[in-house]
Amino acid sequence: MHIEVAVAAPLRGSLTYSCPAEDETPGSGKDGSFFIGRRVLVPLGRRKVTGYVLSTGLEEEKDFVVKRITKFLDEKPLFHANMVPFFKWVAEYYHYPPGLVIKAALPAGLAPKSVKQLVAGKNVAELRTISQQLESWGRELLDNGVISGAETKKLLKDTVTGREIRKHIRKKRILVRETVETDSIREKYETCCKIDSAARDKIEQVFSEEETDFGSLQKQYSVALGITLKLSESKVLFYLQKLCKQSNHTMVPFRDLKKHYPSAARPLKSLVGNGIVIKADLRVYRNPFGEQLSFFPRPGELTSEQSRVLEQLLPSIRSKKFTPFLLHGVTGCGKTEVYLRAAEETLAMGRDVLVLVPEIALATQLEAHFVSRFGDQVVLQHSGLTKAERFDQYHKALSGKARIVVGARSALFAPLPDPGLIVVDEEHDTGFKQDDSFRYHGRDMAVVRARNHDAVVILGSATPSITSYANSVSGKYTLLSMKKRVADKPLPEVTIVDLNRDTGKKKGKKGIIRSELRARLKQNLQMKNQSILLLNRRGFSTSLICRDCGTPVQCSHCNVSLTLHKNRDHLLCHYCGFSLSAKTVCFECRSMDLVPAGFGIERVEEEVRGLFPEAVVARIDSDTTADRRQFLRLLRKMQDGDIDILIGTQMVAKGHHFPGVTLVGIVWADGGLSMPDFRAAEKTFQLITQVTGRAGRGKKSGEVIIQTMRPDHYAILYAQQHQYELLYQQEMQLRRSPAFPPHVRLVAVRIEGRVEQEVQKTAIMTGRFLRAGAEKHNTGLVVLGPAPAPLDKIKDRYRWQLLLKGKNSDELHDMVVHLDKEKADLLSGDVG
After folding, report:
1. What is the C-alpha to C-alpha distance for residues 9 and 50, in angstroms, rounded to an integer?
2. DSSP labels, 15-39
3. Is there a binding annotation on residue 19?
4. Is residue 34 packed enough to be buried (19+ CB in 10 Å), middle (13-18) or exposed (0-12)?
5. 244 is in an annotated binding site
6. Cα-based distances in Å from 195 to 244, 269, 536
């Protein structure tokens, strides 16, 4: 039998291998679909790599030698056969190797491959005589006899160290051994025990949870079972029976038994030997939820808009046909309840549900609603979980034990057998875009996966992306509108504060929080209401500048200024993670006279604490919520009213329901407008509208104050007026000339390398190649660039880019394929 395998290596197509003879026995159940979705270890050149079985077929004549697989790595598939067309489509559309697409879809740590290790040779004794001269790697080798594959690769790659090691290899003091890595994550098993059913029925009649006289209980158990039990054995049976009743499970973890009876091990062994107790190792799933989630009861009645929307959704779910919906609902209109009711109908049809959110913060909000409604049927998939937790959650979905997956963009690949509903919440958010390595858009791929499974897909947002709304206008998506908040609560009143006029230079009034916002914060505190302040910038200040020469302190690896994080007293690069002490000197003139410039969320927090010392102030950003449990605690305190002023980045803007919030202040609304992005105005409108929606969701009405230096900009004015349709019309008009999506499609071509001149040279050659190709084939493609990327150096790699624009997606794909074939001739040095 031949099998089609996608290898976890940078190969654009799949490969053909043959099965070992023992695996192709007819009638053994090991034919056809039995193999699809399983991992295999296969030879690839002179190494062995992990591969994934995509299809099988009968052996046929080939004009090349078909290699055999080395072995199967799994007893059961890791993905269902109906995922294969989806994986192939993704690989083709995004021009990425299919094996690496599947590797990205699976939990981390499941791609073993052959690696080289340094091990002690037959003349290793000679190394001991010079051990004092050896570096740390040599002492590790002498102590352990082996150096790991990852460390070996690093050592041999180093010019000086590699030369030294090869000298010892030639003298047979060291050997290079090839070995295959094992999975770095595995299933977790736990020893459990239960009373045999026949024995349990006999002692059930004499069991009492209040029993304390174990001597009397020993006699009663002995009579009931017809054998003489020891006192310790009677205690084991008593606690097993008690724990079974408390947990409502027949199997009890041995660790729970030992908590009640520490000396249970020896009598348990005797009971197992007599057949009274059964012992087994059962798989357990690590709990990813952390703290107890809030409970949200099912509302008895729906709003008229929720009912109307569901009247359109539910028939499509029942028909089991692919139907894409765009749910455009204002903040607080009850979109979450629509998702929950649609999920109920999908489960009733025997199908599964996939819910995608753009970031972990939103996953935390939605998971509480879904767990409240569906309990253990819900699993999570996002980067906030440990490797072990993600592994377990993935397998619960794969096995069918869970039928609802809630997660960030990577949850798109969740191995649900039959998804009938896919929800993409906050579909406009850029968090759905993966921008490094395997680049894809989670929202767009969700629509494709729904099409492949004949499922309903709901794209939900209060501020849909211009592209999605254009698809609804053209009829590609069905538009569902919800224009009223639950219980007819009014949308907040929005006031714009012009920072050009409100200079705040009066004595005692200077600061980031200007007079009008400051007064409203004070009034809100006096009325015991909650407030939210938004500034989408981490850190205390955006840079540290030298007073003597005016040079900012920059990252050593990126062309960006280091951000001052005052709480940690260090400067940090938000792109590569490089950091150094805030007590540094100017890299140019060595001056120590450095001052903060610009402001970030830490500075806002400091100012607010100074203005309102009596207030309980908290901050939410990626620095304070790296720990998921800490994030949940902050959310609960906010929901319980224990925080007066919450300061946050965009993490506080979306999805959260804080009934006590009546005031939202946007500290500086202009940050996104200066970005070199044709979507800058759209993103600014979306962020302002989303955070505006946090106000007035409870019994009291809400108010929003926007501080801006561009009060006449249409994105800010339309956000003040809650006018998404006007923004859509304005953006569609502006993107017509010069043409930008959704009028055309874009392909970004980025060239990176360590030598800037080589990168520039390659970019110029690539631009000429693309223009020549567009002209030769008479396409309607437009080539823009080359030019340095907006961030022209990241992690010691210089970046240039080109843009391809065109209305015909086939022409764009053909050009990318053509470029991919010729890129070896265009690239030079380490440019890629």
Report:
1. 8
2. EEEE--GGG--TTTT-SGGGTTT-E
3. no
4. middle
5. no
6. 9, 13, 59
Residue 192 labeled ligand binder: no
How far does CA 38 lie from the centroid of its chain?
Answer: 24
Q: What token pair was written down for 552?
A: 């900012």
Classify residue 149 as left (phi > 0), alpha (psi -120 to 50) or beta. Answer: alpha
Q: What is the DSSP string of 622-640?
A: TTT-SSHHHHHHHHHHHHT
Helices (H), 640-781: 680-692, 714-720, 724-734, 756-776
Q: What is the pLDDT of residue 27?
A: 38
Q: Which of 4, 36, 6, 1 is nearest to 19 (CA)?
A: 1
**Whole-angstrom Cα distance, residue 620 to residue 364?**
14
Domains and CATH numbers, the chain: 2-105 (3.40.1440.60), 114-180 (no CATH), 188-277 (no CATH), 304-486 (3.40.50.300), 493-540+599-734 (3.40.50.300), 745-826 (3.30.70.600)
Per the confidence metrics, is the pTM higher than 0.85? no
CA-closest candidate to residue 309, choices 443, 456, 419: 456
Q: Show Cβ contacts of residue 829 under 8 Å, excluding neighbours closer than 6 positions.
A: 753, 754, 755, 758
Q: Which of 617, 602, 511 is nearest to 565 (CA)?
A: 602
Cβ atoms within 10 Å of 483's Cβ, excluding its own: 11
Looking at residue 392, what is its pLDDT? 85
pLDDT over 50 (residue 78): yes
Q: What percent of the chain has pLDDT over 90?
A: 48
Spatial distance between the Cα atoms of 603 and 591, rounded to a whole number of angstroms = 24
Cα 202 to Cα 195, 199, 206, 221, 271: the distances in Å are 11, 5, 8, 8, 15
- 600 DSSP assignment: -
C-alpha 317: how far from chain center: 27
Peptide bond into 786 cis (omega under 30): yes
| Residues sharing a CB contact under 8 Å with residue 249, sequence separation 6 or more, in sequence order | none
pLDDT of residue 765: 93
Lowest-pLDDT range of 88-92, 426-430, 592-596, 614-618: 592-596
**In whole angstroms, how far apart are CA 727 and each of 302, 313, 475, 481?**
30, 27, 20, 16
Residue carrying structure tokens 């017509």: 736
Q: What are phi and psi of 294, to 5 degrees?
A: -65, 150
Euclidean distance between CA atoms 246 and 229, whole angstroms: 24
Reported as half-sphere exposure (CB side, CA atoms, 13 A), residue 722 has a value of 17
- In single-letter form, the type of residue at position 95 comes to H
The pLDDT-based confidence of 28 (bands split at 50, 70, 90) is very low
Tokens representing 459 are 């794209």
b/e per residue 198-218 (b: at least 16 CB within 10 A): ebbebbeeebeeeeeeeeebb
The set of residues, in sequence order, having a beta carbon less than 8 Å from that of 173 and lying 6+ positions away, is 120, 121, 123, 124, 126, 127
Q: Is 555 labeled as ligand-binding? A: yes
Highest mean pLDDT among 206-210, 672-676, 699-703: 699-703
Separation of alpha carbons 15 and 352, rounded Å? 32
Does the annotation list 546 as a binding residue? yes
CA distance 190 to 635: 34
Question: How do strand 277-284 and strand 352-356 relate by DSSP bridges?
Answer: unpaired
Q: In the prediction, which pLDDT does 612 show?
A: 94
Q: Are 347 and 403 in contact (CB under 8 A)?
A: yes
How much of the chain exceeds pLDDT 70, in percent? Answer: 93
**Other Cβ atoms closer than 10 A to 711:** 18
Question: 806 pairs with which residues across the strands?
Answer: 745
| Paired tokens of 319 | 């028909």
